[in-house]
Design a protein that fits this description.
heterodimer, A: mainly beta, OB fold (Dihydrolipoamide Acetyltransferase, E2P), 2 domains, three-stranded antiparallel β-sheet, 1 helix, globular, B: alpha/beta, ten-stranded mixed β-sheet, 13 helices
Amino acid sequence: MEELSPIKVFDAFLAQGRFMVQRARKSGAYVFYPRVAEPGTGDTDLEWVEASGRGTVYAVTTIRPRPPLVPYNVSLIDLVEGVRMMSRVEGVAAEAVRMGMAVEARIIEEEGRPLVIFQPVEVKP
Amino acid sequence: MTGTLRGKTAIIGASTYGIGEAPGYSAIELASKAAVMALKDAGLTPGDVDGLFVCLPQDFLSGLSLAEYLGIYPAISDNNRTGGSAFLTHVEMAALALEAGLCNVALIAYGSNQRSASGKLVGATTTSNDFETRYRPIVPASAYALAASRHMHEFGTTRRQLAEVAVAARQWAQLNPEAFMQGPLTIEECLDARLLSDPLSVRDCCLVTDGAGAIVMTRADRAKDGPKVPAYVLGTGQMTTHREISSMPDLTITGARESGKLAYAAAGLEPKDVDTVQLYDAFTINTILFLEDLGFCPKGEGGRFVENGGIAPGGHLAVNTNGGGLSCVHPGMYGIFTLVEATRQIRREAGERQLAKADVALCHGNGGSLSHQASVILGSAAVL
């Protein structure tokens, strides 16, 4: 079988340092998480395109494990492509992550695998 | 348009068992005990049952297991996986099956020994992808925390208002000898409690208990001849909006809006007709979301609705009169207990917490991470 699982394709791109999302050729709508068909239409004609990596924090929580583990952020990020994903905002204290904050994606390695996280967009002077 | 199933079936038996701690018992033993007690309550035995509806989270084929255990040979059975709302969908399926003549006596049962067995919430097992677990959320608390964060952001809901929900639940629990948590609880204690996943503290989270519940349903013509006052099924509705929280279309609007609309339409009733609401309060934000989505206040007003003891004993709406999942019982899937408590209120068997008027009870179940919503409206003979 030539075609790979969409999730495996996503992770393979990520391993190459590329954050890719699917787009349905017919409707133009973006699809995330990666699927074999567009939700609603069932259209299987999906192409992989580079994600802009730009987004906004939609919802936010600080996870507070018992010390010595340290608090960390979990957010839902709305990408400009119109899809939402769970991720983590880094580069600011977990408690300082705000809804509506403009963020941009970065790929890091965590526990031996690549992971998309976000950081606040630097305000340009 | 009023539904064709309105008042055609009724709950004629109801029981809980092993609420709180039931050390040594397995889940199926607890469920079977509750089932036998609910059948006895209805003047029946397992041999009378020909429709079986069950969900034991640890047993993928629990529909078969409970049939075997109790000596039931069901003509129809359902072992669905909508989460803690499963038992409310069972009421809908049982009502349809009874009315269609596929069965004559339906048993709906649940039991879990999660507290004694593991001390942890029995979560949903594996999911279909890991696009959330990669980020190490606390499952399921973080999903509800995210929803709470959004509600606060959009509507100004406060942690104090969330605390009102927990305190109201405790005050009802103090009127229910069966409730697991009876001690005093103040708003300040809730606000000072350890944060788990902001803005939710441990006091915003449901209990981890053992417990079982069961109900028995039959057609209305037969229900009249039973030993107990029937609680008639007036309307039902359900809606799935997602599985994981990142796929929820709007974190401040749940599928309860649709499930409630369907149930009200089937019952020919409106929120103002409801005497008591029994809803799945896995987290304090649930109560606020569901009261809004079920039409008891406008969207965004839920926080203010519960303020100043609004849903506590003596408040303007009697919510979770048993103490709910927050203070009475939460073995992992709370839905069945909404049905048992509503039945007890309609029968006027609720002791110290009995409401002066309890002719219409709205039961509401939640499954997954606000993912599946199911509503069931029950009523006394007075509203048929």
